[in-house]
TrEMBL record:
It comes from the Bacteria. Residues 21-262 form the MmgE/PrpD N-terminal domain. Belongs to the PrpD family. Keywords: Lyase, Plasmid. It holds the Pfam family MmgE_PrpD_C. Residues 285-468 form the MmgE/PrpD C-terminal domain. Its EC number is 4.2.1.79. This is 2-methylcitrate dehydratase. One of its GO terms (molecular function) is 2-methylcitrate dehydratase activity. It comes from Streptomyces clavuligerus. It is an enzyme of class 4 (lyase).
């Protein structure tokens, strides 16, 4: 790996484009060629994972709204597919609808380092572009692996959350790079597309604060849509704000650490394997990733606590990020509100721990149902739970060794008779270093569970067979990466929603 130092430069420096971060990202993407077998296999896993969570979310209101907006933009051939519809639409609108469907349940992959990310959000816009431009499965895989490489590098090197910038700013850059690799575009075009995308997708983290709204699902879809539009403009020879990262009025200087900003982004050298996708991990439970190990911990602790009515207090010792983003350190009263939105509850560690401790299971719908959140016993337990930042867990969260890096915490439960029960979980069971690392059978089982009755068993099998053969798929086969569903039932649900402009 090559360490690239990124800092602010005054305009008078006339920083050569080859020394700019956007160019270096584009150069890595466009040099992505031969892919390693392990990286390809993991990319296939994530295509399966995305389809599973997308199909499970088809009757969710934000997904239906995005689908309605997209299908109002029908495309002349070839266009791109939309989950839950037979329509072919313009690729940027397919990315919008499918990106929302994938993100809605907070149930797909993650990578945590200096910042947060859901790198699987790159796949919907890449798949849309591949369909629209007649690319093969091998082309799509090259784009996916390149996008993951860029996304992970940015998340490792540049923290956005510290300045309350939403993590989709890194996603947009990665998607633009992935499209460039997919289409084998020249580096200068991808460089311009990266800059345009970063410029237009930088937003605040208010989308994940307080009463969290449905925009949480739309945000990555918006970044994917913007990346496609930026690539289109760059292919036509248009330029973008430059240098977007290092400029004196640019991203680092005014959105992040300021004029003295200095970051290090590590990128693979020419010819070095693209393996960053192997550092990422998916979710066994539909909740914020930092809650995954805590859910597993709560399920284990049920055997020790006895009736939850005996619990006087629960303190979860965890990392800075977990405490301040989904714990009581966020100082969001909404995280303790039984009437809060689903989007808020899946970012409330106290709520998640309470329900997992009571039920011993976690379900992407039932665990968030209003009647479940408003159960009096649950509310009483929920409000006994707080989080605290523990420097040891913060250190493990950022440990450079993937085998030591941890996203869990320690629970200290005090019962009404003064008995103290303690236990901890470093990583989720499904994490690569966990008790049951997710493998292809686990991804397949997750797909079968979430596809449920929405996709017939025969069609589930056809989809999985198609995904397994992704490296050999012809351009005309990419349509089969969208599991067949009852589109008439989906359309009937969509018809019940209010109309908009389109």
């Amino acid at each position: 790996m090559i360490e690239h130092h990124v800092r602010v430069h005054p305009s008078a420096d006339r920083l050569p484009r080859e020394e700019q971060l956007a160019w270096k990202l584009a150069a890595v993407a466009t040099a992505t060629e031969e892919l390693e077998t392990d990286s390809v296999a993991m990319a296939v896993n994530r295509v399966i994972d995305n389809a599973a969570v997308a199909v499970a979310s088809l009757s969710r209101r934000p997904v239906a709204v995005a689908r309605a907006q997209a299908t109002a933009h029908r495309a002349t051939a070839p266009g791109a597919s939309v989950f839950g519809s037979r329509a072919r639409v313009s690729p940027e609108w397919a990315a919008w609808a499918n990106g929302t469907a994938v993100r809605e349940l907070d149930f797909h992959d993650t990578y945590l380092a200096a910042d947060y990310s859901h790198p699987g959000d790159n796949i919907p816009p890449l798949l849309a572009v591949a369909q629209h431009t007649g690319r093969t499965g091998a082309d799509l895989l090259r784009g996916i692996v390149a996008a993951y490489e860029i996304h992970v590098a940015l998340v490792k090197g540049i923290c956005l959350h510290e300045h309350r910038i939403d993590h989709v700013a890194h996603l947009g850059a990665a998607t633009a790079c992935g499209i460039g690799a997919l289409l084998r575009l020249p580096t200068p075009a991808v460089y311009q597309a990266v800059q345009q995308t970063v410029h237009t997708t930088t937003a605040t983290r208010q989308s994940r604060k307080g009463e969290i709204s449905s925009w949480k699902a739309y945000a990555p879809a918006f970044a994917g849509k913007a990346a496609i539009e930026a690539v289109d403009r760059a292919m036509r020879g248009e330029t973008s704000p430059s240098p977007i990262y290092e400029g004196e009025d640019g991203f680092l200087a005014w959105m992040l650490d300021g004029p003295t900003a200095d970051y290090t982004v590590s990128l693979p050298a020419l010819g070095e394997p693209r393996r960053a996708i192997l550092d990422t991990y998916t979710k066994e439970h539909s909740a914020e990733y930092q809650a995954q190990a805590i859910i597993d911990l709560a399920r284990r602790l049920r055997e020790k606590t006895g009736p939850v009515e005996r619990i006087r207090s629960i303190v979860l010792h965890t990392s800075h990020h977990t405490h301040h983003v989904i714990g009581s350190g966020a100082n969001d009263p909404q995280k303790y509100d039984p009437a809060a939105s689903r989007e808020t509850l899946d970012h409330s560690l106290p709520y998640i721990f309470a329900v997992a401790l009571e039920d011993g299971v976690w379900h992407h719908e039932r665990s968030y149902a209003p009647e479940r959140a408003q159960r009096p016993g649950t509310v009483a337990l929920w409000r006994k739970i707080t989080t605290v930042e523990d420097p040891a867990w913060t250190s493990r969260y950022h440990d450079p060794d993937p085998q030591r890096r941890a996203f869990g915490g320690r629970a200290v439960i005090t019962l009404d008779d003064g008995t103290v029960i303690e236990d901890e979980r470093a990583v989720a069971d499904a994490h690569p270093a966990g008790a049951r690392p997710f493998d292809r059978p686990a991804y397949t089982a997750k797909f079968h569970t979430l596809a449920g009755t929405a996709v017939t068993p025969a069609d589930q099998g056809r989809f999985l067979d198609t995904a397994a053969h992704l490296p050999e798929l012809a351009a005309t086969d990419l349509d089969r990466l969208f599991p067949a569903v009852d589109t008439e039932a989906v359309a009937a649900f969509d018809a019940t929603l209010p109309k908009g402009l389109f």
